[in-house]
Design a protein that fits this description.
single chain, TIM Barrel, 12 strands, about 40% helix, about 15% strand
């Protein structure tokens, strides 16, 4: 039976993966309320199509941080792709390059940054930094990513500690303990010099005061991932960062926060066009992508569905997931009368009374 939508890949991936690996990918914090809300919130938004337009030509192309992408559908940072497929992030990078979209590589990638770059040399890559307690290690990671041609630094701000993920605790899974620092540091000698426990910890001291320090280390645009409120969006503007990725970490950190799509309008209003705003969390259909853009997102990033595709068919599965969503999005644009990304606006949507 052909896989025709993202949830088809979800069902097949669940059958293929061991329970502990599946629970890790699908896991949520505490009761999983936010994870479920991420998807349900999209369904409370209705579309307002405009007809009798010439939609014989529809262009899904756009830009993020000045770089062209084929559609506003990119890949969010997720860890340990080798759980899903032997080639892990190398396969993901090749699929992103083939699809013409951006791939944000996680600090906790299971392949070396060199191998990821070599596997897709012309792909658009951003690097996600999960800030570590060792500031020298953070400096090494940032400068290493920049030297390898990553085009932006995506700093996760919502992980001062790891959220309580009940399934991982029940399964006694501890993937972080198996991270090999040589995967991301420059050489085996550097890896030996850094205790392996460092990457198993987060930096609870990281705060707004450290943003200028990050900016001093790199010429890359800095994107803050995890902002959910007007107040933090205004502080992001004050600190002269280049973008915000509205995200609740896929419901894996603090439970019972707003769904990403529900937080988006507040952040967009606070930013007032002074930086690009993106979204991840809960996107499963082309209509979801259209709704996010109508509410002000420049682009959406996919998390779990990428791992579903990787589990099912490796690189080809990720390509299929991206292409299915791109085609659904093109259909959504066509059926609502949008011939280009520029024609997508707030008038296309209404909140449902459901």
């Amino acid at each position: 039976m052909p896989l025709v939508c993202l949830t088809d890949f979800q069902a097949q991936a669940r059958e293929r993966l061991p329970k502990a690996s599946w629970d890790f990918i699908e896991g949520a914090a505490d009761e999983g309320i936010t994870m479920r809300d991420n998807m349900a919130a999209f369904k409370k938004i209705r579309l307002r199509p405009r007809y009798l337009k010439d939609v014989s030509q529809v262009d899904t192309g756009t830009t993020i941080q000045g770089e062209a992408i084929s559609a506003p559908i990119c890949i969010a940072p997720t860890a340990f792709h080798c759980i899903a497929w032997p080639d892990g992030e190398m396969s993901t990078a090749r699929a992103a390059q083939a699809a013409g979209v951006c791939y944000i590589t996680s600090t906790y990638a299971s392949c070396t940054l060199e191998d990821i770059v070599a596997s897709a040399p012309s792909g658009l890559r951003w690097f996600q930094l999960l800030v570590q307690p060792d500031w020298q290690l953070n400096k090494q990671l940032i400068q290493r990513a920049e030297s390898l041609g990553f085009k932006a630094l995506v700093v996760s701000v919502d992980v001062p500690v790891i959220g309580k993920r009940r399934d991982d605790l029940r399964n006694q899974i501890d993937l972080k303990a198996n991270i090999k620092l040589c995967k991301i540091l420059q050489s085996p000698d550097e890896a030996k010099a850094v205790p392996s426990s460092l990457l198993a910890a987060m930096n609870a001291f990281f705060c707004w005061d450290h943003i200028p320090w990050l900016q001093s280390l790199t010429r890359l645009p800095i994107i803050l991932k995890g902002i959910l409120t007007r107040e933090d969006a205004e502080l992001a503007v004050k600190h002269n960062v280049q973008g915000i990725l509205v995200s609740n970490h896929g419901g894996r950190q603090l439970d019972e926060v707003p769904a990403s799509i529900d937080a988006l309008a507040e952040v967009v209003a606070a930013v007032q066009g002074r930086m690009e705003v993106y979204l991840d969390g809960g996107v499963r259909t082309g209509n979801d992508v259209l709704k996010a853009l109508a509410l002000g997102a420049k682009c959406i990033f996919l998390g779990r569905p990428i791992l579903w595709g990787l589990t099912c068919k490796g690189e080809k599965g990720v390509e299929e997931v991206l292409n299915i969503l791109k085609e659904e999005f093109r259909t959504s644009m066509t059926l609502t009368g949008c011939r280009s990304i520029a024609e997508i606006n707030r008038d296309l949507i209404q909140l449902s009374r459901l």
